[in-house]
Amino acid sequence: MSKVRVDEETKVLIAPLQFLMNWARGHSMWPLTFGTACCAIEMMTVGSARYDTERYGIFFRNSPRQADCMIVAGTINLKMAPRIELLYEQMSLPKYVIAMGSCAVSAGPFADGYNVVQGVDQILPVDIYVPGCPPRPEALMNALLMVMERNSAGIPSAAEVFAAEQRAGKAAL
Amino acid sequence: MTTRSAIAVDTRTFEGISGVFEVGVLGMGDLPSAHTMPRHLIDVLTALKQERGFTHLSLLTAAERPAETPGVKMVYAVTRRTDHTTLMLSVDLPEESLRVPTIVALWPGALPLEREVYDLFGVVFEGSPNLRRIVLRDDFAGHPLRKGFVMTPGGVDAEDLAWALASHGDDGPAPQPENSDPKRTVPLPYPSVAEQLARPGDPILHSQRQLLHMGPQHPSMHGVLHLWLALEGEMVLASEVTHGYLHRCIEKLAETRSYRACTALVDRADYVSGFHTELALLMGAEELAQIEVPPKAQYLRVLMSELVRLTSHTTWFAACGIDVGAFTPMLFSFRDREAILDFFEEITGGRMMFNYFRPGGVKDDLPAGCADRLHAYLKTLSASIDGYEALLTTNEIFRNRTCGIGVISPQTILDFGVTGPMARASGVDIDLRRDEPYAAYADFDVHVPLGEIGDSFDRYAVRIAEMRESARLAMLALEGMPEGDFVTPGVPRAIKPPAGCAYRRVESPRGELGVYLESDGTAQPWRMKIRSPAFSNLHVTNAVLPGRRISDIIAIVSSVDVVMGEIDR
After folding, report:
1. In B, which residues are within 8 Å of A109 by CB distance?
2. Domain of B315: which CATH number?
3. The pTM of the whole model exceeds 0.90
4. A16 contacts chain B (CB < 8 A)
5. In what order do the strands lie in the sheet with A128-130?
6. Using one digit for the tens of pLDDT, what is the confidence trace for B42-77?
7. Given 1.20.1260.10, 3.40.50.12280, 3.30.450.20, 3.10.620.30, which CATH number is that of A29-167?
């Protein structure tokens, strides 16, 4: 924080560019409206009047190219898996993934099914897990605020960590 | 409920139809049932439809036969709307010849249902114009609902996932009838996407035809719905619904769980109105196991069904506004939804996944004081709904987007097995709450709102009227709540119904929701099939969209009220 100062003469705030970018991103998290199942209804609820995430700068976007954060709200099956990978690749860095609900965390009640992926972390690097079936809207809001805090603090996202590990030849999903 | 003497009358409906045998002895409880052979199937169904007036195809599914006679049993249920009689018809298919003629020529809406049976059981429908997988990937190996298909504990492993990620797993909209003789193939009941794309564009405009994928990630696709559209400019020439992106093996998993545990699974099938699927499942289980339900529980079931219809319709109202570009309606309708969800949380413990209905009744009584607060709240709901109407009903943009758009004729409704508000918007006067009263609905006078021309606006207006009606019925249920037990004492946790079948239906917010149950005498169902109303309602869009423009697609699909969890299961 010490690098941030106000120039006395011109009254201009002077800060490192990275700090300012993180600060701005941390206050305007745009999640992708990616709901597959029941959790998507609770995700809608988060955007509605009672919870009103827009007061935190959380504004749902319909295009992955405009989104910073993917909330995987629901079960992922073998038919959906290649599509979710495609959507993720269309998002630009820095990007975050929230696994919302038991299904996205670990396939939930459908874990023994013949068609259900055992959690979205089998496909994508996940930042925050939100347990629940479905989680309460407050839990999802908490996860979004955690992502924003991490962003403000400049903590690298799971996607960046994974990319770095991949470059070093260490990681394979 | 049909009495025993009525069964004797009903089974006579089969008289004079050749190829029908074993009338009324299939263990179908109080539904008249019969058995036929694959070669007689078309004749029997044609006679039932054209001579006896059984015009509505309610159920088309299959079940595994017992191990001593390997094979698959096809099950059909047809309904006569004039006196609300339902007949069950079954066809046994031996393992060496899993083939049966298609009934698409009789009911075009049977096409997706047959595709589902082909997908999950491997039954080949001879003459089907489009016999391909519908919920699973095109390259999936095996037919999972066969008993021979054993699920590995722990589910899909890394190897399967790597295979799934390597390709998209669908072959596009090209029609590929498997093992069918082109001469005997029934024509597709709506324009074919592949055929339309193969034709040249308009020579004067020098336009080209193109294939557009809408979904499975699309802000207006209500979940993971995918449409293949053949377009020329902005005109839709043909469309084909693709789904299966939310197939979660609910029907197979149900075969490994007790009836009580199944309610938790089916809650997640139709996730915006869980009570209805729970109710249909338990009505079937209670019929099989001969469990009585006390009157208070029946009233609580009616109350919960109507409240959840309100939450479902408010969710639809939010989506309906957003789809045509109005965000504000969502803020209003979710306010009421949240208020009802708070009551659900107080009564059942959950906001969306209730698991509240139990064999023989419900989990718990209403908490102290809850009934009065709920009643007071429901009184205010009418004013809220007036507010909704002020936002959309007289809104010029909304009316321009929906009036006269997506008109569905009563004949199309019947052909495709469309039910619920969509059918009522087209003037088809059906409502299971009034026609075949279940739970305590016989004590209520259910008013059924009807539309006139069956466009998107009528579907909107019917649902708005249904919200008012639901609030009224919920208040009546609270006022007339009898005293007594909320559950039959002594019902064991794991019920073991004797061997038999049951098919029970309820009126869900999307229409006729049925659960077909087969028991083999153990604590787990042998087969559990959910007759999904949204499934049939959705597939009618293949016939409605051609000839419309791209912007109308959203206005039409949003008026279907799609819930993918229930469609894919």
Report:
1. 253, 264-265, 268
2. 1.10.645.10
3. no
4. no
5. A31-32, A69-73, A96-100, A128-130
6. 888 888 888 888 889 999 999 988 888 888 999 999
7. 3.40.50.12280
